Amino acid sequence: MKKIILAVGLLTTFVSTGVYAQQSGVKRTDLQRHPLEAVGYETIQARIDLAPGTAVGMHSHPGEEVIYVLEGIFEYQLEGEKPVVLKAGEVLFIPAGKNHSAKNIGTGKASELATYIVRKDKPLLVYKK
To answer: What are the Cupin type-2 domain coordinates in residue numbering (predicted)?
Structure first.
């Protein structure tokens, strides 16, 4: 039981402080987190704000990510695909484990609502090496 509590605590710490929060020009605000009926999975919602010209490098998640652009203009690059440019009101689905990056290509702040459907026992974000 202590190992489970420790693992959940470490994952919560990683997600709430996360790589996003430590990168200059990126602000991550965790909005909600809930276990799903599917054993071992949870949903996490976060608002991600990027300053102009800021990018988040190639990374993946242990589950699907659904993105809704709140404001600004993003360029998303999914590994092996052509870049996709999205503006406020547009959406993107990123499959589980798919490496991708995001960049604010506008002149003002760019914000997205990221919804993750992920495994509880894995780190939320893994940068590509």
So the answer is: 48-111
